[in-house]
């Protein structure tokens, strides 16, 4: 599916988003996510729909890579976050006579009703589904979602800060812990900061979707971080060592081998986004940093520089347009 294709994302199945069957194991889900994330990451895909598609992929992976969350999703579909604790018992109660009586019967099953408005079902307008049929007990509040901009330095080092969010009753502030190694599209959970519960139910959770802002010097692909490395012509020919500062403030040395041309990628292993400290999945590792060589020429060479370049042109047999 192309990133610009219009889809009904509100109802799109997470398995279909990742292109895996419903019985896919954790490794298959991870492989599918990594492949598609590289394709649709907004830093490498300029299609207008790429960023939204990347968010869909990240949400799908976040849900399906966690066994507990995946189990709830398999049971309730997209509405699993809005279901109160213990709803699994109601979902499994439809094997008796009540299920045969239809949706209004006491054995009502939730399966197959992913698009149903469960907020109305559990005590919304019109008196609520359970009035006259016995109370369902406390109902948990709905989960909510918002975006948060995270700098690349914060993604390296982590930290805490306050974020102001808009809401139906006005702006509110929340304290956010940004873990080191956070990625674009990742969802940060703030327990109990979502919608209010009913009849004494617990509040829902707030999920902040990370929008990684790498800045002008860097771009990010997954956990790998990239930057340009400008070089003088003689540095590319003779080789050199260049000190660069990576996003966490550390200064590292890049070794440029003799004969380096524009486009060559110089790899610094483990200097990309760090591996998450907690909750890491099998196969997670720190990313790498890639410095992309760019041979630069002086825009206004001195007379002596011009003379030396002319001498080089006369004695050199190098032709960059010939294939070696």
Automatic annotation (TrEMBL):
CDD domains linked to this entry: DnaJ (cd06257), DnaJ_C (cd10747)
GO molecular function: DNA binding; unfolded protein binding
PROSITE patterns: DNAJ_1 (PS00636), DNAJ_2 (PS50076)
Keywords in alphabetical order: Chaperone, DNA-binding
Residues of the J domain: 13-77
BP term (GO), one: protein refolding
Pfam families for the chain: DnaJ (PF00226), DnaJ_C (PF01556)
Entries under SMART domains matching the protein: DnaJ
Name used for this protein in its record: Curved DNA-binding protein, co-chaperone of DnaK (Hsp40 family)
Organism: Frankia alni (strain DSM 45986 / CECT 9034 / ACN14a)
Underlying gene: dnaJ
């Amino acid at each position: 599916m192309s990133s610009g294709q219009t889809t009904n994302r509100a109802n799109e199945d997470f398995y279909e988003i990742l292109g895996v069957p419903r019985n896919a194991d954790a490794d298959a889900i991870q492989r599918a996510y990594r492949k598609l994330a590289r394709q649709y990451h907004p830093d490498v895909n300029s299609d207008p729909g790429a960023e939204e598609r990347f968010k869909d992929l990240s949400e799908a992976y976040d849900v399906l890579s966690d066994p507990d969350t995946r189990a709830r999703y398999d049971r309730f579909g997209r509405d699993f976050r809005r279901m109160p604790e213990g709803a699994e018992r109601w979902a499994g109660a439809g094997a008796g006579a009540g299920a045969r009586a239809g949706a209004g019967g006491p054995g009502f099953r939730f399966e197959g009703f992913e698009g149903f408005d469960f907020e109305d079902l559990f005590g919304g307008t019109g008196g609520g589904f359970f009035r006259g049929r016995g109370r369902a007990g406390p109902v948990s509040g709905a989960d909510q979602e918002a975006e948060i901009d995270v700098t690349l330095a914060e993604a390296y080092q982590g930290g805490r800060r306050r974020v102001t969010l808009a809401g139906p009753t006005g702006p509110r502030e929340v304290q956010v812990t940004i873990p080191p190694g956070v990625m674009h599209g990742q969802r940060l959970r703030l327990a109990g900061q979502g919608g209010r519960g009913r009849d004494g139910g617990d509040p829902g959770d707030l999920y902040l979707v990370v929008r990684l802002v790498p800045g002008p010097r860097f771009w990010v692909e997954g956990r790998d971080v990239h930057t340009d490395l400008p070089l003088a012509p003689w540095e590319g020919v003779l080789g050199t060592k260049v000190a660069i500062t990576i996003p966490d403030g550390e200064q590292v040395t890049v070794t440029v081998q003799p004969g380096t041309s524009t486009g060559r990628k110089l790899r610094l292993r483990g200097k990309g986004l760090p591996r998450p400290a907690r909750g890491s999945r099998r196969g997670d590792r720190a990313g790498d940093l890639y410095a992309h060589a760019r041979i630069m020429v002086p825009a206004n060479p001195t007379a002596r520089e011009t003379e030396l370049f002319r001498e080089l042109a006369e004695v050199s047999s190098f032709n960059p347009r010939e294939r070696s």
